[in-house]
Amino acid sequence: MLFKQQALLRQKLLVLGSLAIGSLLYLVARVGSLDRLQPLCPIDGRFGPHGQEEIPLRALQFKRGLLHEFRKGNATKEQIRLHNLVQQLPKAIIIGVRKGGTRALLEMLNLHPAVVKASQEIHFFDNDENYAKGIEWYRKKMPFSYPHQITIEKSPAYFITEEVPERIYKMNSSIKLLIIVREPTTRAISDYTQVLEGKERKNKTYYKFEKLAIDPNTCEVNTKYKAVRTSIYTKHLERWLKYFPIEQFHIVDGDRLITEPLPELQLVEKFLNLPPRISQYNLYFNATRGFYCLRFNIVFNKCLAGSKGRIHPEVDTSVITKLRKFFHPFNQKFYQITGRTFNWP
Ligand code: A3P
């Protein structure tokens, strides 16, 4: 009898214990998401269409999960209508530079409750076939968002493609343009590393970086090599400036985004006229990855894919020196035009 009562008591304690643990877990998760809930603050500024009812950030954040479902294409027409969701053309584009940290920048900006990212690179303006499909095709590639959110896409090929500035200008002459740059030689080696990895995956052999970057006939820097040309930032920017004033560009320091992302993101928030909402809480350093990762709340966090942050091959120091010397005057011009100086050698 006593044994039976003890078993019953144990069972009750077990149920109560599970309930307590369950509630605790729920509370912990809620506190995590509450951390991300922002005070009521409508987004004003250039992006908000005047005179329309504005959605408070709290509501936007709360519905982020729902948006995610819609982005995956799981929304019915009725749901889209009910939630007043739209596919908007981007108000800002990360136009480059390839290997500058474009993915990290997009993902980090997406932490902001008023920002919605186009997950894929759309390559609308740099690809003639896509461009021929028209602006409605482009808009339909955009994620669903609330009218007061802004959509951002990134296609790093835009920065270096001849036709793109004019095409973007035709779509929206007041669009905001983000360019993330890294020290040009490091960027070129990163670019090479990505191509090398692709070749290795296909069991192909490839040249050494030194052989591509230096012309064997002249022993000078090979300006025909794409990874070198892409790093001459000022040349590309000058083409863009034929269409857009410099005030429409914001230069992000890609090297600093790696080591100290928050101040860089805060500068972008300011440039986009967004209230500051990304905090240190949203970014944590992951020692295993060696990079900052994203924290949405206490439960949900993510690091960038392994293809971001590759180990670069060792490059002959004389080649590095030669490249740095080569880029130097172009860098000076870039600082002068953009008003942003970097400690590049
Ligand atoms: P490496 O692979 O050379 O290290 P992109 O997205 O434009 O292709 O840029 C890739 C670069 O983003 C990577 O170059 C990496 O250094 C940089 N990066 C910046 N922040 C990062 C982060 N939080 N996680 C991973 N990579 C990051």
From TrEMBL:
<keyword id="KW-0812">Transmembrane</keyword>
<feature type="domain" description="Sulfotransferase">
    <location>
        <begin position="90"/>
        <end position="334"/>
    </location>
</feature>
<dbReference type="InterPro" id="IPR027417">
    <property type="entry name" value="P-loop_NTPase"/>
</dbReference>
<keyword id="KW-0333">Golgi apparatus</keyword>
<feature type="binding site">
    <location>
        <position position="292"/>
    </location>
    <ligand>
        <name>3'-phosphoadenylyl sulfate</name>
    </ligand>
</feature>
<dbReference type="Pfam" id="PF00685">
    <property type="entry name" value="Sulfotransfer_1"/>
</dbReference>
<feature type="active site" description="For sulfotransferase activity">
    <location>
        <position position="99"/>
    </location>
</feature>
<keyword id="KW-0808">Transferase</keyword>
<keyword id="KW-1133">Transmembrane helix</keyword>
<comment type="similarity">
    <text>Belongs to the sulfotransferase 1 family.</text>
</comment>
<keyword id="KW-0325">Glycoprotein</keyword>
<dbReference type="InterPro" id="IPR037359">
    <property type="entry name" value="NST/OST"/>
</dbReference>
<keyword id="KW-1015">Disulfide bond</keyword>
<feature type="disulfide bond">
    <location>
        <begin position="293"/>
        <end position="303"/>
    </location>
</feature>
<feature type="binding site">
    <location>
        <begin position="308"/>
        <end position="312"/>
    </location>
    <ligand>
        <name>3'-phosphoadenylyl sulfate</name>
    </ligand>
</feature>
<keyword id="KW-0735">Signal-anchor</keyword>
<dbReference type="InterPro" id="IPR000863">
    <property type="entry name" value="Sulfotransferase_dom"/>
</dbReference>
<dbReference type="GO" id="GO:0000139">
    <property type="term" value="C:Golgi membrane"/>
</dbReference>
<protein>
    <recommendedName>
        <fullName>Sulfotransferase</fullName>
        <ecNumber>2.8.2.-</ecNumber>
    </recommendedName>
</protein>
<dbReference type="GO" id="GO:0008467">
    <property type="term" value="F:[heparan sulfate]-glucosamine 3-sulfotransferase activity"/>
</dbReference>
<feature type="binding site">
    <location>
        <position position="190"/>
    </location>
    <ligand>
        <name>3'-phosphoadenylyl sulfate</name>
    </ligand>
</feature>
<feature type="binding site">
    <location>
        <begin position="99"/>
        <end position="103"/>
    </location>
    <ligand>
        <name>3'-phosphoadenylyl sulfate</name>
    </ligand>
</feature>
<feature type="binding site">
    <location>
        <position position="182"/>
    </location>
    <ligand>
        <name>3'-phosphoadenylyl sulfate</name>
    </ligand>
</feature>
<keyword id="KW-0472">Membrane</keyword>
